[in-house]
């Protein structure tokens, strides 16, 4: 059989990530087979991060969204903010539970207050946090 056509001949591990606006899905191709990665028994993970001590991702972050003292630090819709100016987002900002301000160039900055200090992060940093969490989860489950 042609090794290019025989998936069992592939010895490397590959990870495919769908970084969605509201949910992320992940699949791993290993030992010639594809498998959807589960997060807490589900095939997708909410695209949100709770910036606290410690940071939490996905379903853990989502559970903090309804707790008044935590909801401002549960960040979602970060992908929706990518490549948009603060002005482009002005109609959406009032509907979010977290605070957003404009930087000097008119780009959105998300305000995070963990009780000790105030930080400002870019939407791409939230997406990067989600991707890092997914990578770490996949490495733990499939590469160790």
UniProtKB/TrEMBL annotation:
Coiled coil: none
MF-aspect GO terms: ATP binding; ATP-dependent protein folding chaperone
SUPFAM superfamilies: Actin-like ATPase domain (SSF53067)
Keywords: ATP-binding, Nucleotide-binding
Entries under PANTHER family matching the protein: HEAT SHOCK PROTEIN 70KDA
Protein's name in the database: DnaK protein
């Amino acid at each position: 059989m042609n090794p290019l056509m025989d998936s069992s001949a592939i010895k490397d591990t590959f990870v495919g990530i769908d970084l969605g606006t509201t949910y992320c899905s992940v699949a791993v191709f290993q030992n010639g087979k594809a498998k959807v990665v589960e997060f807490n028994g589900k095939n997708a993970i909410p695209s949100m991060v709770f910036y606290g001590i410690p940071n939490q991702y996905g379903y853990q972050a989502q559970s903090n969204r309804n707790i008044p003292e935590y909801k401002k630090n549960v960040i979602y819709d970060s992908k929706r903010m990518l490549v948009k100016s603060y002005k482009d987002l002005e109609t959406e900002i009032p509907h979010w539970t977290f605070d957003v301000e404009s930087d000097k160039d008119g780009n959105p900055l998300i305000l995070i207050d963990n009780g000790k200090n105030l930080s400002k992060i870019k939407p791409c940093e939230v997406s990067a946090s989600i991707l890092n969490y997914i990578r770490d989860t996949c490495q733990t489950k499939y590469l160790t």
